[in-house]
Here is the input.
Amino acid sequence: MTDLVHVRFVGAPVPLMLRATQHQQELIREFTLIQLSDERDKGDVPERLLEVIERQRAEFAHLSFRRPDELAGAIERGDPLVDIEIDLPREARAAAVEVQALLVEADDFCRHGDLITLAAAPDVVQFRAWFLGEIVRQLDGQPPTPYPGGTAPEA
Here is the structure.
């Protein structure tokens, strides 16, 4: 049985969480298309990007934004902020660190035009860093910290 750790995300801004999830899904969709493309078409894709795609897809299989009942209820009610609690295996710490680094790298590829997907907006980048950082911090035994600012940004 895998040892699970209870992780809390306190005061997560719902609209921002949804935008971060949408951006992640756009990246995964583009990565999937690249992986499925003809080898000739991959010839135009930088080798480093192909490595990032393969690693990122593997990491996202182990760690992704989840939509527990708390988030679904908050969306339904139109709540601007939500507290979410999930149980993660200790191994999720390494995946969170890797995913954070890979998302930064993927954004660089987006900015340089190697991907069709646009780079994440600054507030999405900040949210991702907080979300993944909370996983790392709490799996290291530290208490949860609320999302910085304490208010929900505009959608």
